[in-house]
Structures are given as structure tokens and as C-alpha cells.
Amino acid sequence: MSARALRLLLADVDGTLVTQDKVLTDEAVDAVHRLHQAGILFAVTSGRPPRGMAMLIEPLALTTPIAAFNGGLIVDDQMQTIEQRAVPKEVVGPVIELMASGGLDVWVYRGADWLLQKDKGPHVDREAWTVKFPPKVVSSYDAFTDQVSKITGVSDDRDKMDRVTDEARATFGHLASVAQSQPYYLDVTNPHANKGAVVKFLASRFGLSTEEIATIGDMPNDVLMFAHSGTSIAMGNASPDVQRAARFVTTSNQDEGFAHAVDRFVLHPPGSA
């Protein structure tokens, strides 16, 4: 595929666009501006809530829709809703119960709110620093089952995570999208809220063929967007399975993998000379 054929790059955020310390490097910012100068659109998608990506808008001069919650809520650069796909109300309670019974802490994202029951649980402080807003502590989720954008199960126990992930897919896979966005996060969203659907949304929004879209990511939930794009790039920090699902592999997010990918595979793709 020639460089001229690529018209949009869609990037995951954590593990891809930013470093392990959640830093947006100068090199990554410069790479995005090189895309702008080349007339190639740039968009982001993440399991983060919309407010958790607001800090990217100014440095990256973002004007494209921002796909939060893996596509469950798409907003514009003013944080106004363009499209929302909520978790089906009837599965919210059962999903929460399954996660809790499996030993995972449960977070619920609804509207602009991040709800949880234990404000000192694993990754809470880190997540609050990352998304730049605090959670709200509630005693029960019973009153918050409608308009839920994402339910996240949290644990550093990989065996628990994998076990609950498998059970959630078996139980709710026909009713919801179930994927680990980080080794310690299990995300459940609307069945049509996944990163593959984000590629299709952007293609329709900008009148593009999916073959004209490049995607870059590092986690299993990025594989669906790889499958629906013409050029797919895995980060060097991605697992071997994720790397095998991509057309190209760049360096890690600790070694400017995003910026390298922009130059090597998007602006000057192999075979374009």
C-alpha cells in the first residue's frame, strides 16, 4: 500500500501513544504533527473515559472524533457526545456479580462519572492520575444500571483475570464485548463497542475505505481494529499473539515505538519508494 493511499491513523493510547508512565513524549507529538502536515488524519481510541483523553486534544491538535470506552462513547473535541452505545441494562447487574464473585474489584463508568465501591483498591490512584479526575464512591450499583458505558473488573492476579474473562465471554459474549484492555483490566462494553467498530465508524465519518486506515496498538482488544484496517501495526511491547495479528511491528512504547511507526509504516510505508 502506498503512502498516498493511507488517509487516517487510528491509535490506541495506553501502551501505544504514551509511555508506561503515561507520558506523551515530544517525539510522539511531533510525529502526529507530521501526519497533519502530510494530510493524514489522526484519531485515538481507548478504554479510557472521554475526560481521560481531553489532555491529548491540545498538544496533538485533535479535531477527529475521540472514541472512549473502546468505542462505547464517541465524542468530539469539545467532549460533546456524537454516538453512545451503552451496555445492555439487563446484563449490567449479572456482569458486576460475576466479576465480584471472581475476586475482581468492579468499576462502573456512567455518563461523566467513574463509580466504585472501594476508593483504596488496586490501580485506583494510578487511574485517577492518568485520567485526571477522581472516582465517586457508591455503596451499591443498583441505581446505576442504565446508560452504563463500561464495566471494568480490576485485579493484579492474572489467573483470576483470565478465569473471569473466559467465564464472562462464555456467559455474556453474545450480549456484550468482553476484552482485557490491560493485563489488570477486564472491560465489558456494548457488543458493538469495540475498536473494530471504531475503524468502521471513522471510515463512514470521513468517506474512507477501511483499506485507507492504519491502526496501531498493543493489547488483545486492539486486534479487532487490526482486522478491519488496511495497515496494522503492533507495538514492540505487545504480546507475541498481538504482534502476529498485525502486519508490522514497531519498537516499544518505551523506545518511541509510536513515532517510529508513523515514519516507517505510515508516512513512508515499505514499497512506497
Main features:
273 residues; alpha/beta; Rossmann fold; Hypothetical Protein, Haloacid Dehalogenase-like Hydrolase, Chain: A, domain 2; 6-stranded mixed sheet; 14 strands; globular
Q: How would you portray this structure in words?
A:
This protein is of the alpha/beta class. 34% of the residues lie in helices and 22% in strands. The chain contains ten helices and 14 strands. It has helices spanning 13-17, 26-37, 54-60, 89-101, 124-131, 158-172, 195-206, 223-227, 240-245, 257-267; strands spanning 8-12, 41-45, 66-68, 73-75, 81-84, 105-110, 113-116, 136-137, 148-154, 177-182, 185-189, 213-217, 231-234, 248-249. It has a six-stranded mixed sheet with strand order 8-7-6-9-11-10, with helices on one face. Strands 2-1-12-13-14 form a five-stranded parallel sheet, with helices on both faces. A three-stranded antiparallel sheet has the order 3-4-5, with no helix packed on it. Helix 4 runs antiparallel to helix 6. The longest helix has 15 residues, at 158-172. The protein is globular and about 55 Å long. The mean pLDDT is 94.
CATH architecture descriptor text of the largest domain: 3-Layer(aba) Sandwich
Count of the separate structural domains:
2
Count of helix runs: 10
Give the C-level CATH assignment of the largest domain. Alpha Beta
General shape: globular
Helix percent reads 25-40%
**What is the structural class?**
alpha/beta
Write down the CATH topology of the largest domain: Rossmann fold
